[in-house]
Design goal:
Helix 7 runs antiparallel to helix 8. Helices cover 79% and strands 0% of the residues. It has three domains: 117 residues, Serine Threonine Protein Phosphatase 5, Tetratricopeptide repeat (Alpha Horseshoe); 70 residues, Serine Threonine Protein Phosphatase 5, Tetratricopeptide repeat, CATH 1.25.40.10; 89 residues, Serine Threonine Protein Phosphatase 5, Tetratricopeptide repeat, CATH 1.25.40.10. It is mainly alpha-helical.
């Protein structure tokens, strides 16, 4: 291995580690340096695709979706037609960016092309189900989400697909099926931000079903779990506070409702200037 090759590979691996730790700026420096060094050593170097994909994931994580999509496209250009896991990963990542941008038809195409390469990928079936759900193609979405759940079985990742199934059933007015899916999701999910969101969703659904005591309990527990997971000033906390204050108001606990509503307003106002910054 030449020194130049060792340098860019070491920087790429360091960038991936930093990205996994959520250290965006440090990861960006390492990955950009790795890209320059790899392109300088050999413009046709196959590993450049992996660096571009990592930069795309970094931009996606930072909320810069169009820049992420550009990196994913450049990565995909290097592996397209090879029918490798690298191609499937690039197609999947590009699909996620397209989904976030609201380009649902193109997202569906990317996920389906990726599934042709990796038909047993639960994650790809889940992404496909999410895209179909966005386009209200409910029978196809349900089939895709159920496929993801079946492949994941009872492991923690299945919880998110079950939560999406619950949203699908709610959209169809099948609230009992929605509740069953949410119950399974919460039982499967690990403690933290994602499970707290699911508890909040279940609280809202309990309220729709007229189960006021259960709604209050779920939202209270969701609030506590979310605050532990992300801190008291995160937007997710604000959303739960807003729902919780509405429930408290309707069940006659007005002083508590006002406290929760004020907290929600503080969080909303602190994040409002950032909503159009991407």
């Amino acid at each position: 291995m030449t020194p130049a090759l060792a340098d860019w590979q070491d920087r790429y691996r360091a960038g991936e580690r930093l990205l996994a730790d959520g250290k965006i700026e440090e990861a960006q420096r390492e990955l950009n340096t790795a890209l320059r060094e790899a392109e300088s050593a050999n413009p046709e170097e196959p590993g450049i695709g992996a660096i571009l994909d990592a930069l795309g994931r970094l931009e996606f994580q930072a909320g810069r979706i169009r820049r992420a999509k550009s990196y994913f496209d450049r990565s995909l250009d290097r592996v397209r037609g090879q029918r490798t896991t690298a191609e499937a990963a690039s197609l999947s990542n590009a699909g996620e960016a397209l989904l976030a941008l609201g380009e649902y038809t193109r997202a569906l195409q990317s996920f389906r092309q990726a599934l042709e390469i990796m038909p047993r990928s639960a994650g790809l079936w889940h992404h496909l189900g999410q895209a179909l759900l966005q386009t209200r193609r409910y029978p196809e979405a349900e089939a895709a989400l159920r496929k993801a759940v079946a492949i994941w079985e009872d492991s923690a990742p299945a919880a998110v697909a079950l939560n999406d199934l619950s949203l699908l059933y709610q959209a169809k007015g099948q609230n009992r099926l929605a509740m069953d899916a949410l119950e399974r999701a919460i039982a499967t999910a690990a403690p933290g931000q994602i499970r707290a969101r699911m508890r909040a969703n279940r609280g809202v659904l309990h309220w729709r079903l007229g189960q006021k005591r259960e709604a209050e309990a779920d939202l209270r527990q969701a609030l506590g779990e979310m605050e532990v997971a992300v801190g008291p000033l995160h937007p997710d906390v604000g959303r739960i506070l807003s729902d919780y204050s509405a429930v408290l108001e309707k069940i006659g606990r007005k002083p508590e409702a006002k406290v929760m509503a004020r907290r929600a307003q503080v969080i909303e106002s602190s994040f409002a200037p950032q909503t159009n910054s991407k």
